Amino acid sequence: MQVPNETIFTMETTPLKFGAGATDEVGYDLKRLGVRRPLLITDRGLVHTGLADRVRGALREADLSVDVYDDVHVEPTDASWEAISEYVSGRDYDGFVAVGGGSVIDSAKAANLFTSYPAPLTDYLNQPIGKGLPIPGPLKPLVALPTTAGTGSETTAVAVLDLLSLHVKTGISHRYLRPSLAIVDPLNTVTLPPMATAYPGFDVLTHALESFTSRPYDARPRHRPDERPVYVGRNPVSDLWCEKALEFLGRSLRRAVLNGYDMAARTDLALAATYAGIGFGNAGVHVPHALAYPIAGQVRDFLPPDYPGHTPLIPHGLSVISTAPATFRWTYPTSPERHVHAAHLLGATTGGLTDAEARDVLPTTLLALMRDTGIPNGLSALGFRETDAPSLVDGALKQQRLLMGCPRSVEAADLHDIVCASMQHWT
Ligand SMILES: [Fe+2]
Q1: Which mean pLDDT values do the consecutive 10-residue runs of the chain (427 residues) have?
Q2: CA-to-CA distance for 155 and 142, rounded, in angstroms?
Q3: How close is the Cα of 149 to the center of ligand 1, in Å?
Q4: pTM
Q5: CA of 61 to the centre of ligand 1 (A)
Q6: The three-state (H, E, C) secondary structure of 370-418, written as one string
Q7: Bridge partners of 162?
Q8: CA distance linking residue 124 with residue 286, whole number of Å
Q9: Ligand 1 center to residue 289 CA distance, Å?
């Protein structure tokens, strides 16, 4: 019988190799995947730390002929994707190794796509900015080694970029973009300074919370199998991954930020990033991520501590967490039990709460985590004023693919209220 609602959810993920020292097995895995001539994609910072060299050494030891592309910048753009695709074209690489954060892994996904199935960028970009055409077939093997516990890009089917001409952040999402293997080695995150731990950590936290509270898969319109989006909405399987990620974060986010050499905390954070990546990579995110795009895009003069360079930048994790407390106060009525349960997993006491306390427990728990780990006090501390709200709202409204995941209908006025409530978190 044909019903109007979706009745089916999907769950796909990248095979995973996890643990201290897993980096050293990269050569074995590439060979196993049939790769003989890989391109190692990374950034200059990781060349500086010696990690890129270590991976190159492991590949050479496995008798693989490897080239290195180290010109990936933080927050890729259409220009930087073009540059890396141009570099790759005409060289006969048969696979890719990405060593870095989300920017590096997403750039590797793009290089793989545009050299395997060349086409204008807009063909593949998500609608309405692009045509959202499906990727014609499988790509070459891509092995991803994340060096932050954050984006989860090593497990997701999405690549994000800044479209310079339109001043908008968008991306490509298709199952063929998923890496062939994620090698997650917590040792690679030990030397990250506190804020380069905290911001990606809060990205993980919002992935888990947004997915866990997203519009359920069966409370959406029905899709044909070839049109079903990558983000299908929360479902019984994505919940498992998100819940576990929240538990790890509640136990270890503070510890990993305050003492980077706490290996147990680093391991928890790396697991949380992977788990949340699997959860949100299938369920999807909503309002904080939609607002994060214009927040990052409209940065004025904020220079994040512990980040290299002197270019104003609002790191992704900081831009998403900035509106999370206000968002979850607003989504609370859609699933009070989920909001309270999430706070409980993060370590809050949730027994015997009054109605008013229950409503507030998740935002309050987030704010305590943010204060303890040195997150700036609201959008005003990042250089925004209430008069910026309309342009932030406009930018978020362009992210309909993400807003579709919101568990209640979301209008410009709702987003405006959330932005204004996020100007200052505490007094
Ligand atoms: Fe994110």
Answers
A1: 85 94 97 97 92 96 96 88 92 96 95 95 90 95 95 92 83 94 95 95 98 97 88 96 98 97 97 95 96 92 90 93 98 98 98 96 98 98 98 92 95 98 97
A2: 11
A3: 11
A4: 0.94
A5: 35
A6: HHHCCCCCCHHHHCCCHHHHHHHHHHHHCCHHHHCCCCCCCCHHHHHHH
A7: 77, 169
A8: 22
A9: 6
